[in-house]
Amino acid sequence: MGIEWRETSTWEIKGRRYHATEKNYYETNEKNPARSRFLGEDSDRIELPGRTIYLLINIEIRSDEKNFHVALVRQIFENDKLVRRREWKETVLRMFN
Fold first, then answer.
1. How far is the first Cα of the chain from the last one, in angstroms, to the nearest whole number?
2. Confidence (pTM)
3. Which of its termini does the chain have fewer beta carbons within 10 Å around, N or C?
4. How many CA atoms lie within 13 A of 2 on its CB side?
């Protein structure tokens, strides 16, 4: 069973346009709740005179009986060209029942 949530917003300040989008997806296994997951995406687009900056973050959190498995990717684009990309992965021990 899964639930999806989305939100977008746009605004302008002193000639700069901002576009923000967030998407979240939650999923739980009814027969085995420990095997749940979360997927998230956040993006921000900033339109400046002569250039556009785009920030994109994706996260995935999966779980099992013993751990949470977290993966995050952050990307920064300038004028549609990838400028930086960083990726993190970590396993976090469950400390509760």
1. 21
2. 0.85
3. C
4. 11
